[in-house]
Amino acid sequence: MAFEGLSTRLQNVFSKLRGKGKVSEDDVAQAMREVRLALLEADVNFKVVKDFIAKVKEKSVGKEVMDSFTPGMVIIDIVNKELTELMGGSQAKLAKANKPPTVIMMVGLQGAGKTTTSGKLAKLLQKQNHRPLLVAGDIYRPAAIKQLQILGEQIKAPVFTLGDQTSPVEIAKQGLQHAKDNGNDYVIIDTAGRLHVDEELMEELRQIHANVNPDEVLLVVDSMTGQDAVNVAEHFNSSLELTGVVLTKLDGDTRGGAALSVKAVTGCPIKFATLGEKLDAMEPFHPERMASRILGMGDMLSLIEKAQSNIDADKAKEMERKMRNAEFTFEDFLDQMDQVKKLGPIDQILDMIPGMGNMKQMKDVKVDDKQMGRIEAIVHSMTTQEKQNPDMINHSRRKRIAAGSGTSLAEVNRLIKQFDEMRRMMKQFSDMMGPKGGKNKALKQLKNMGKGLKFPFR
Fold first, then answer.
1. SRP54-type proteins GTP-binding domain location, by residue (predicted)?
2. Can you give the CATH number for the domain in which 239 is found?
3. Is 124 annotated as ligand-binding?
4. Residue 96, marked binder
5. Can the peptide bond before residue 101 be classed as cis, meaning omega within 30 degrees of 0?
């Protein structure tokens, strides 16, 4: 995950401050030295780091902070606010034309993910009840037009193309007219990239810009490129006057410096981030939420939004009823896993829960998607009767399930044992919350139930 190294380093720094009743200027200076090193290692621009540290230090050594009851927490709050400002302060929303269609021009170097990002943006707009038109303006890269057409088919969005023999400027002009004629309220123009910034590329983009007068010029930047991403943004911004940046591959093994530098260096807000290969793996960029994630404070707002848009409310109610009545089966368990998977990779979900990011580093906790895959394989290897009535799964059936799922007998036994424990806990919880169970009894039993519980099945 992006920022994982930075997040760990910063959390270690601030855990020392939290434990202090009083904080001296030397404590602040030492913490800021460590923060500075952490940011530089994350590939954040040197000038950006220098300014950031100066601002935090200035606000952290004031009398109000030093004399406060919890100075460590106040300093963390200052860092949180400055990180938020560094990335833009607040969410920068997509522009909207006074008269449709709104024209969005996607630019960037080859390999940054412009075509895929164009499809993801169209999908995001569809969720908001818009009717986007994708325009295939990249006539140079082999199969670029075909790729956009395939993406359009997948999300059921129209794609305008004139093949690879017409000039990109003409394609953009006719695409815009096509959108006006067919009632599309957004036009997303996928343009060609190069392996490096060159004048020929910029001149073609300037001509497209002059002819379609876009409401948005979004630079698609591969966050894996680190500091180079900022240099690219500077070049494009000086030639095209960018309106925003889309950071791709933010879920990759990246240091994340681009996200912390690009706004400060170019003045262009980060408007979107992509966190996976799926077409719905794109979300608006919220600086305050990203700062909170980096500092290990979680991002419950984004998690709630994901849940609201991906989880079936009726299924959730039915699942809750089954849990209360101890009718929960392995079939229900599979359904529940499917619902969780819709939220995205498990490590991303944990990053959004305050304090849970560190769970990934604990030796006794498995939270990877491969582990979930093994669990699913075990359950899929059961017969319908076995899923509905786990009590009937004897030793010979367990051996068959292990062989069928490509797992060990020990893994099958572990899953069934923990599933039984989970059902028993559900029953206890349901009983104690009933008419005979009081609040104190419930709290006492909850403490006992929590002992020895491991997450997830391992």
1. 101-296
2. 3.40.50.300
3. no
4. no
5. yes
